[in-house]
Amino acid sequence: MILKKTVVSLFFLLTVSGLCPVIADQYQISLLTCDPGEEIYSSFGHSGIRVIDLTTGRDMVFNYGTFDFGAPNFVLNFAGGRLDYYLSVSTFDRFIAEYDYFNRSVREQILDLNEQQKLDLIRFLETNYLPENRAYRYDFFFDNCATRVRDAISAVLGDQLVWHDEEQEAVDKSFRELIDEMVYYMTWSDLGIDLALGSRLDRDATPLEEQFLPKYVEGAFSRAEIQGDGPSRPLVKESRAILDFEKPEGSFGAVNPYWIFWVVAIIFTVLTFVGFKKKKLYIGFDVSLFGILGVIGLVMAWLWVYSLIPSTKWNWNILWAFPGHLVLALALLKKTVKPWVLHYLLFALIMADAAVVFWILGWQSFHPSLVPLLLVIILRTNYLYYNLGKFKKVK
Predict the structure, then answer these.
(1) What residue spans in the chain does CATH classification 3.90.1720 cover?
(2) Is the domain covering 26-168+207-243 a CATH 3.90.1720 domain?
(3) What pLDDT, in 10s, does the model give residues 329-356?
(4) What are the φ/ψ torsions at residue 235 (nearest 5 degrees)?
(5) What is the DSSP secondary-structure string of 278-336?
(6) pTM of the prediction?
(7) Cα diameter, the chain
(8) How far apart are CA 84 and CA 67, in angstroms?
């Protein structure tokens, strides 16, 4: 009987030990990091969580970066910080086909989670995917497809997850510099972002805050370590490239704001010189200039007041692109000018000078292409202030 019990016990232990690897390897979970695309909405890259059921072959990707272009008032809601993104789930084949089509590289980091951690993460994602939970209020810097992935792992592992941010390269970067890394060669998009977002972008981002960009989440995962459930081990046990395309060389393109704005500056400089010699104002050019600046100022003022995005506040671009410039443009069209116009020209000159001072002191970094425009504003407001009364009646 003793021998029989011993044999049965040994058989049971061997059977259980043989099943354990199967149970432990039921799921494989990994972080997918996708390279940027050519469109502005894809220019910062993307993150997703891949879950493979090794027993059934079911291969799914949880994607927090889904939005609906056809949603009512899409542009206004996006600019106003009122756009909802949501978690979607697709097959891996369908997910990867898009990146293959657009020649965007995709890298995978397989996570070294134990079975319970895998189940907890899957449960977390499935709960997030419930209809009442899947939508969230998108915030480009603090709540997006990359930060959601990072936060999901953090929520499941808790104190067992150690990021080791101290190992990161010690280079302080502002939010604006981090954005410039991704859109530097997309000059018009880069300009638009710098015009729309204010001085809050110019503070240094912490290692955690840098992870609004997928490539920084990828770097954080590669440094992270799991502790407290046995021997410490890296969070990532294996990294590989799923799609690997050669990155195109960056180029400003033939039509970019850098040379266009310098051409504008040269034209206004020549007009001012010729006008001084011939005693003419060429006021039509000023009407166009200040009209455009006024419209830009209205957009920035709308974002400052109406948008829920904190980064659109305290935008000192409004010093040179002021909404009141639109009123100035209309006033310049009249045969006679009111005295306030001369006062306003002095006010506009001072504000443009203040913008330069803010830039030099580092209170806000303006887009480099704006240098010639600032010079034009200073030149023309100064010229009109001293010469407008010579060519038009002031009353």
Answers:
(1) 26-168+207-243
(2) yes
(3) 999 999 888 999 999 999 999 999 999 9
(4) -60, -35
(5) HT---HHHHHHHHHHHHHHHHHHHHHHHH---GGGSS-GGGGTS-THHHHHHHHHTSSE
(6) 0.86
(7) 121
(8) 7
